[in-house]
Known about the structure:
- The complex is a heterodimer.
- Chain A is an alpha/beta fold.
- In chain A, 32% of the residues lie in helices and 17% in strands.
- Chain A has 8 helices and 7 strands, in the order E-H-H-E-H-E-H-E-H-E-E-E-H-H-H.
- Chain B has a 5-stranded parallel sheet.
- In chain B, strand 9 (163-170), helix 6 and strand 10 (198-203) form a beta-alpha-beta unit.
- Chains A and B meet through helix 4, helix 6, helix 7 and helix 8 of A and helix 2, helix 3, helix 5, helix 10 and helix 11 of B.
Amino acid sequence: MEKFQTITSTYVPLPIENVDTDQIIPARFLKATTRDGFGDNLFADWRYDKEGNPKTDFVLNDPTYSGEVLVAGKNFGSGSSREHAAWAIGGYGFRVVVSSFFADIFRNNALNNGILPVVVSEAFLRGLFNAVKADPKSSVTVNLEEQTITNNATGENEQFEINSYKKECLLKGLDDIDFLLSNRDKIEAYEQRRPYAY
Amino acid sequence: MKTLFDKIWDAHVVTTVQDGPTQLYIDRHLCHEVTSPQAFAGLRNRGLSVYRPEQTTLTADHNIPTMGQDQPIRDQISRFQVDTLAKNARDYKLTYYGLNNPKNGIVHVIGPENGYTQPGMTIVCGDSHTSTHGAFGAIAFGIGTSEVEMVLASQCILQTRPKTMRINFEGKLNEHVSAKDMALYMIAQLTTGGATGYFVEYAGEAVRNLTMEERMTLCNLSIEMGARGGLVAPDETTFNYIRGREFAPKGERWEEAMAYWQTLHSDEGAAFDKEVTFDVSQIKPMITYGTNPGMGMPIDGTIPTLDEIDEAGQISFEKSLRYMGFEPGEKLEGKQIDYVFLGSCTNGRIEDFRVFAGYVKGRKKADNVTAWLVPGSWQVRKQIEAEGLDRILEEAGFALRQPGCSACLAMNDDKVPAGKYAVSTSNRNFEGRQGPGARTILAGPLVAAAAAVNGRITQP
Lengths: 198, 460
């Protein structure tokens, strides 16, 4: 996994609430057996018409907006557990998703793929949407080490939560399997002592 | 004093990372073709074996046709995905219920019906509706593919301990009200993200009175309000369901299991982070009108008007109604529909088919309706035939298909065409869920049967 470093970037606004993983990557694209190529179909049904032509009214097709950060409405990533949603977001080139609320499974999937979900207050989120509306070149800075996000248009700044284990993983580019495998002895010890073995 | 959730969670803690997640031991792992290939590829890349192969079971369900399963799958990419699952089963010596195996079916249907799902277990699967198994008093939840790889490699997963919520359903259900209606009512009240961060215990008189299959329907939909999972304390209903099933403990092992299972309930006075109570006499047969399962109302209800929606949600609300072709303030009772789907891990079990067949018996399918009746497993289908329900359905103009997830997520050919309305017993009404442009109205099997016969949304 790529190490996560401080990012300053313009951002893409998606002020829709409850963006579910079926929108992020529709089920018909889940037939692949590798992790590659999902970025091309990120938000496929919002992004392309039936003939596969880009819909000009969708933000990813608007050259005004770009960046490594996606800023979305409340409850982002609800629904299906498909990690393909995280692969699509990462494959497209986003390293950070900002929202006021994330669905649990999506948040875990993002973290397991080196994508940082940043939870901000409703007011901060509104501030980001307003800033980018006024100037599409507005940027944010996400500092994982300090756990801060800054709206560079207004200077407004917020702390965000992440547990220190996951933070270390992201900063060092480590994944959970390395950790779990290093704990084999503890797993075997658990299997001996568990209250009921199925 | 502990909650049921605490008891099961604590019994599975291998270790806790300081200021980090818990390393949780997993008793049962279920895999299907869509969310597992990259996990097995990850194992191969790292040169790892499956740590406890006897604790993982594979089935093909999401990406398979529901007709002609004895033939090779025509869609080449789908066939390759299913073949990859079979190869992974062979390479790692895992139990696999492939197409035409009598134990094949939707992963959350076959676990319970074979007695594989038991109280007190931790159960995971790369599928968000794994919460279904919580009906047995298990901690069961959906995971991503990286986590599937973790479980294959170590039989463990790293999880942050969720908060606990108890939802009490008090009173007696009205006539024609099902577990599906209870769930849609609950999600409409709590919203689609209202239980995010929580693990829910369902309790109260109305839950105790549910059959196991109804409890599965309720727990299945926990994820649709964002909960990690939902569970019900095991009781006589649970034990009677499990007893004698193929993988259930037998003889002395059964006695041991029962002694343990009977300790699995929330202690009196145990504290929950949140508690909600519903009076079930308020619940009527439900439908959804929007593009998430929280957008539900009684059949005779009206869609909210814009001023009833908070400001930040108005863009999404309008977008949703535009997609559905509905107006704020509109009534949907009497609205013509085009498709009916009976099936899925939510409502694809024998009791659902009994309800549907019971309604359509002596009636006829409406000419304007295309109906897909998809049993959740081969065992469900066999039971339908054993009870003669297939003949009742046939006489009413319906045909049974072969098991699979089918039109619930429309990865196969069972796609609702753009702009068409489908009354579905499945779990998600998201945009495009049942096919690009498809418009889904979620409901229980009885409401679906009434829609299939009347060709429109009606009271059952």
